[in-house]
Amino acid sequence: MKEITVFSPATVANVSCAFDVLGFAVAQAGDRMTFRKTTQKGVGIVMKNFRELPVDPERNVAGVVALAMLQKINPDFGVSIEMEKGVLPGSGMGSSGASAGGTAFGLNQLLGEPFEKTELVKFAMLGEALASGVAHADNVAPNLYGGFTLVRSTRPLDVIVLPVPALLSVSLLHPLIEVKTKNARNILKKSVLLKDAVTQWGNVAGLVASLFSNDFDLMARSMQDGIVEPVRSLLIPMFYALKQAALDAGAIGCSISGSGPAVFALSADMDTAEKVTEAMQKVYAATEIPFETFTSHIGKQGCRILNDNKI
Amino acid sequence: MKEITVFSPATVANVSCAFDVLGFAVAQAGDRMTFRKTTQKGVGIVMKNFRELPVDPERNVAGVVALAMLQKINPDFGVSIEMEKGVLPGSGMGSSGASAGGTAFGLNQLLGEPFEKTELVKFAMLGEALASGVAHADNVAPNLYGGFTLVRSTRPLDVIVLPVPALLSVSLLHPLIEVKTKNARNILKKSVLLKDAVTQWGNVAGLVASLFSNDFDLMARSMQDGIVEPVRSLLIPMFYALKQAALDAGAIGCSISGSGPAVFALSADMDTAEKVTEAMQKVYAATEIPFETFTSHIGKQGCRILNDNKI
Fold first, then answer.
1. Structural domains of chain B sorted by starting position, each given as residue range(s) with its CATH number in brackets
2. How many Cα atoms occupy the beta-carbon half-sphere of B183 within 13 Å?
3. Residue-wise pLDDT tens digits, B292-311
4. Annotated catalytic residue, options B34, B128, B277, B295
5. What dihedral do alpha carbons A290, A296, A298, A301 form, nearest 10°?
6. Does residue A296 belong to the interface with chain B, where contact is any CB pair within 8 Å?
7. A247, B45, B53, B127 - which has most CB atoms within 10 Å?
């Protein structure tokens, strides 16, 4: 294989109550990445859009992941990575996770699959460390595994793939303002009341149970975040209006995607998800803030091959 | 029906990481309670053992539950409750929960089942409020529903019954020292670090997933409590020696039952659970502290009818 093109999905992390542990892949939004063997060793980066992102591999999310993988294998060739980002940096939809996870997945294919999926997650976490200062797996786990993933622990890494109710769909509204993950982390309180933590893990338990039992009513009751959402929503204009509009339009639940500013809502099927997206659009159309929206199935698959050149 | 005798199971609440939300019923340990219609209105209590417990119905856990139920129905008869406790008060194995839940269940049968199960939980919570000052459902939910129950919320009450892996068994060692639930609550810190709370709800999510997927490895990795166990274990002599002995003997996980002092361990089957009980016994046999042990399947059923007199 000389080159391969992969699709690397957007992801929603911090699913409501399940801050830092639960995430899912978005089927119809993501990056397109092509990996080519080069005679010159090392890593070259070509940005097809977002040309302001650094192409120095040591300062590029995809670059640091690729460098670490190549260092482990030490092949007699190099790799060029051509990226066309569909997930906007700073959106809260796992932009750096898509670059990092897509590189781990795509380059592993190009190298003849020397690494297991868990190792791919670990490589991809290096990209997250560069992007946000924290080597978290919230986005790269669903990006690589697909569906809903639970990152029970990062040290040691323990990723559990949870079932996805068949028709579950997602609406996303991304206000085109930037919220840096670092800032969104810094405004969180360092400690919480035990009673609030108990409420939160009761809801996390309910949310996980709802995925196994396809119980959307339970999912709706469980999608309540009393710890992170009340703080981070301050950084998202009209957050509660968006949430109310989504719920009124039939969404199961609605919260902040990752560290924001994107807002996601889950619905029982695509028809409802489309109505929910429309309802959220209306809220933002009445403001001056530019935005983009997505409506998608949950991505049962994570990163996937679009085409390869086996010659 | 003039009288009915029921079995009301012991329960393990605060299952490791899942403080205040998860509990399960113990099949082979519990109270025996007989409910008889009396011509005189009101509630009479007869203690067949533990005669030091108050028999004034307003000061007795079973009594307050029965009074509340009778007040709602206002039948033209009264009830006498004869209790033979198998769950020792102050054991941490849901003693007050067994009295309260057993009364809700048994009296409902005697009255012709006017109440739904959720209502029975609410009545039983009145007994818990008398016993511990907090109207919690951690014990009465598994006592009434059986199996593993998640109390996602108490206000409003939301009990979710979770699946029980077929052969899952429990070992219990109850040191015969008393730890009052009130005291065990008071020593807990009022707040926790957000990062510790996140670790905890990651583990709660893993534990719930393990029940659905019969994944005992995941259950083992998830049964880690970094918040409550480190504090409450101080009240339990030799706790960490017990825990180590249980794990060495093959237990999946081990933690404090309820607010202690009983310690429980889960095992994949009864054979292992018996070995685990023996291993725990050895630890305590080397001390001067009296103790009792139990080995049991998880009680798939909660309270159940032993016999009734339909005449």
1. 3-162 (3.30.230.10), 169-297 (3.30.70.890)
2. 12
3. 999 999 989 999 999 866 54
4. B128
5. -100
6. no
7. B127
